[in-house]
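Table S2 (continued). Query chain:
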Amino acid sequence: MMENSKIQLQVDSQKKPATQPQVATQTGNQKEVVSKMNIEDEPQPDLNPLIRDKDYPAGVREWMMTAPAELKFATLAVASAMLAVYATRLRLNYVYDNSLSAILLHVLVCGEQSSGKSFARYLMTYLMAPLQKRDAEQRSEEQKYAELKRRQGKKDGKLPPEPKTDITLLHENLSLSMLIKRADAPVKLYGCPKTLFQFADEIGAIVQASKRQFSDIKQINKTGYDLGSLFGQDYLSETSYSAVVDLMLCYVYTGTPAAINRYMDKAAIEGGSVTRTILCNIENRLGDNPLMFKTLSVEQIESLDNILEKLMQGCYEENGKKLCKERLLDTQWLDSTVQRWCELQRKRVLKTMSKALDVFYKRSSVSAFRIASLMQYLYQLEGVKEGQEIHKLVKQIYLACADRILQNMLGKWGHVFEEINAESELVPYKTNNWFDELPQQFSRDFLAEYLKRNDLKTPVKNFICNWTRKGWIKKIEKNVYSKTGKENKKKQRNNDR
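Corresponding output:
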């Protein structure tokens, strides 16, 4: 939950002298604060509902119809991140962007142990099967060459050239050089980049692997969210792969709340990694039965096979030897829906003055737009529904996803973001004349309390000794002092000169 940000008001050096408290140990308010309005103070709007399970396009519909109620949105997000890999040649024109974008989705599934988050692996066995099969053939070529190289070496210059392979699915234990090599491969083969995909059952394995490779996985993923964002390395070593690539990345990571907190640390929240992430929370209720999907029917499996075949055809041509041409998906009709939702959030920002909401809603809209665009593409591939019906359903999918992405992001990271922003706000530096603000007579205890209220760490005895030595104060009884007026006389002499 978001907490109120607090800003300490600067003490005006010209204000009236402090009044002595009746009790020397009285603490009172240590700081004068002004609280920003909190988004939680504003009544939360109802979430736009998800569409009916049976109304989703093929490739998603089968999973929504068999998923338990607790996993509906998580299922939609995970399936979308996987199917988006096939739509690598699609380009989108988001209403607030000045350049084209691609359907790149980053999904985190958060749940306690045995909460049911392993469903993501279950979806992957079906949805990524065609790409896994293709990758297996490509990896076989790499292994044959590696074995030949070990046996023959480079003697007599008879070693054939290294095969040009195109791997889509990235292992969780991935070196930085291999990542760049995989991203560079389609450019060398086809003259253009393509989407890569990474899956991890435990996000901790990804973090540890990146540490071993001296790389920042969060920065890599951040770069992989946007089309045209370049990433690379340049080493002298022949064993390292040097290149600058247009990294296009979709991923699905699962992990416990503690593991995800370690991944999305303060630096990631401040740096923008969280805003590019679709968080799916799985509630763990004590005593509940494990969450289970219904078994897919024969018809559902056939439907999945058909749509995956069409997706592969929309990705590769010439029997997988060439990427299809880049094509722009017409989403102009969705622009007004996106603008209305964003305008609603902007008004909430003005009411709540929440910086977290201001930043989070903009990127939530982008991710929701990408999911909605993917659904439009799937509807068109399936070829069952008419244009107007597709538009109606896609609009509702966008609104439902935007609401949930934003809600989950605020709930998990909103309060941390507000705290970071409060800490980073620039406050004009100002010195205060603490001596003038004291009353004519004051006790040692009063001075100690006064310094404490103003967050001054200097010991009381230092003030007493300095002011006594200068003749500004004199002791009138035990631990009680009176101003002498000498300090004002000195100031007057300086003004007369």
